[in-house]
Write a structure and sequence with these properties.
The chain has 296 residues and is of the alpha/beta class. It folds into two domains: 165 residues, P-loop containing nucleotide triphosphate hydrolases (Rossmann fold, 3-Layer(aba) Sandwich); 104 residues, K homology (KH) domain (GMP Synthetase, Chain A, domain 3). A hairpin with a 2-residue loop joins strand 7 and strand 8. Helix 6 runs antiparallel to helix 8.
């Protein structure tokens, strides 16, 4: 039986989280149109009995950092890349090659493990455009394999998974066969709420937010959850709350619907907004909120 780790690496908005969710046919990572949606490693465990167990790690998009938080995110992505058996370099094939692509490619080159080129979002391209894009990427590095696909629209990934398993070592199960993630429940609750913030608010707010689950209680099949959304400025707090609480209600309503599906019961959700000035540049706060590796 083949068992091992595969890291998904790439620039922000390349579609890594969408691909992770598509591979599992369920939501493991939040997605939005905004860059830097993924802030920390997210693991998914995919088991095909008697064939393979693959532990996928979705990593934050690698980019030029502007805050300590973003430096931590890059370090965490780099750590995942170095400690894996195989790397998927996920590329948005519909946009031109840029400096950010070169930076990520150089990082995966140094990992010393096989790298699959995953040309994503090819549904937006003509066949000849895909071929030219592939040829350009092949001239930059000797990839072990390549796949052109659409994580958003494709439903069958059997070929990708079976090919990937061939590159993994023989081994025993590392997780129970029915387990699909080792993330704690509160992590997913906070991420679902943050996703709705990303989807509902304008560019000024999303990157400055974090979510903390302060209280979770279950009585029979009803979940009572209190969570706080953190921002850096009073103006951002005002936007999140909205006129007469309209924005916060919108975020809460959308989050509650998804949380009920995830938790399998009725959810009562209370959201609060708190200002934490410049938390993205404060190491203690970043660690407290569960983002990134330490600088030690």
């Amino acid at each position: 039986m083949k068992t091992g780790f595969i890291a998904l690496a790439g620039r922000p908005n390349a579609g890594k989280s969408t691909l992770l969710n598509a591979l599992f046919q369920r939501k493991l990572a939040i997605v939005s149109s905004k860059a830097q949606t993924t802030r920390t490693q997210i693991r998914g465990i995919l088991t095909e009995p008697d064939e393979y167990q693959i532990i996928f790690t979705d990593t934050p998009g690698i980019h030029k950092p502007h805050h300590l938080l973003e430096s931590r995110m890059n370090k965490e992505a780099g750590g995942a890349i170095q400690g894996t058996d195989l790397i998927y370099l996920v590329v948005d094939a519909s946009v031109p090659y840029a400096q950010g692509d070169a930076f990520v490619l150089n990082m995966v080159k140094q990992a010393g493990v096989p790298v699959f080129l995953i040309l994503n979002k090819t549904d937006k391209m003509k066949k000849e455009q895909v071929v030219k894009c592939l040829e350009r990427w092949q001239s930059r590095f000797s990839f072990a394999e390549y796949f052109a696909l659409s994580a958003m629209k494709q439903k069958d990934f059997k070929d990708l998974l079976k090919t990937s398993a061939k590159y993994l070592p023989e081994g025993e199960l590392m997780y129970p066969a029915n387990e699909i993630s080792d993330e704690p429940e509160n992590f997913y609750i906070a991420e679902i709420i943050r996703e709705k913030v990303l989807q509902c608010t304008e560019e000024e707010v999303p990157h400055a937010t974090a979510v903390l689950v302060e209280r979770k209680q279950k009585k029979k099949d009803v979940f009572y959850i209190q969570a706080v959304i953190l921002v850096e400025r009073d103006g951002q707090k005002g936007i999140l709350i909205g006129k007469q609480g309209s924005m916060l209600n919108k975020i809460g309503s959308r989050a509650r619907l998804e949380l009920q599906e995830y938790l399998g019961g009725k959810v009562y959700l209370e959201l609060f907004v708190r200002v934490e000035p410049e938390w993205r540049d404060r190491a203690g706060r970043i660690s407290e909120y569960g983002y990134g590796l330490t600088d030690e």
